[in-house]
């Protein structure tokens, strides 16, 4: 079985522009298993026309013109779909986009306008981060802080989704799950080092829900290893946390918190009412 690191390093040829006469927008059926880009498809495996996802290449991934063969544009769509899976973004978060950010959870009608001001600053920072990552792979990360249900994870997932669509390598890790994986790999040095190495070296890392978990000296050291390496190599990291900086020092340590501050721009999101509760009320009123 290939490791996460090996999968992320797999190469895909850039697709040649399609003939202008061919009008086709690729559609990827979520229920259709995407084949590996290096898999070969025989004539017998070609599906009937009515079930084809890409009628241009007959789902083979290549187009033949005379003696020349080149990748079909649908391969780019398949690559992006694979990137979403390898980035570990959950199904519910794949729909998050910065353009869909809802200010009505923070804005008019709320008692404290500082909620909308904080949301505006955080959204603008997220947009700038996405643009900067596409221009320069080395730079500052972002730390989104705030109470539960204030939109931190939404912004982090939106950043990840837009960078993946721009074909950048992203890894989205939920911190409690990461800690569980590290504990599970405690007796397997190879697996542990593979996970740590991937988290340390991936171009863009998202660490979601850095909260008041049951940290041990061992897990604190692993988090420090990831954060410290990325700071030294100028690899941007997006972190969400419901902890204040003082609380963060208590839970993950002063030296790790110090490095997060040094390598990040910090934005705080606040809401009058948990956004998930607001969404629930909307749904029930309908």
TrEMBL record:
Highest taxon of source: Bacteria
CDD domains: AAA
Domain AAA+ ATPase: 138-267
Signal peptide interval: none
Cited Pfam families: IstB_IS21
InterPro entries associated with the record: AAA+_ATPase, IstB_ATP-bd, P-loop_NTPase
Swiss-Prot/TrEMBL GO biological process terms: DNA replication
GO molecular function: ATP binding
Protein name (database record): IstB-like ATP binding family protein
Protein's organism: Candidatus Desulfosporosinus infrequens
